Amino acid sequence: MKAIYTIGLLILSNTFMTLAWYGHLKFHEWKWFNKLGLISIILISWGLALFEYFFQVPANRIGYQENGGPFSLVQLKVLQEVITLIVFMLFTFTFFKNETIKWNHLVGFIFLVLAVYFIFKK
């Protein structure tokens, strides 16, 4: 059950982080957003990233073996990276219709999946 909680919290965490890091690239379509300066955009992104920590920190505490969780530190990091990639790709294809996936992207994703396989292999 801790594994499911950890993965769920990591998905929520990465959703907020993706919005914080890349959302502003799409928000420019809102008229009021165009009037903001760089500092305001940074503060909005920082505010979104704060919510990332509300999910990331508990995910790591629940999931870490030393706290009774199922994952080693390395496994937590690799899991987080793969979740980040999945969330990012869903975000990209949902909000940035002009982006396309190319063969080299697919090869890179396959290598990341292989990394997960090898990191979790006993």
Automatic annotation (TrEMBL):
It holds the Pfam family DMT_6. The chain crosses the membrane at residues 7-24, 36-55, 76-96, 102-120. InterPro entries: DUF486. The keyword Protease does not apply. The keyword Transmembrane applies. Keywords: Membrane, Transmembrane, Transmembrane helix. This is Membrane protein.
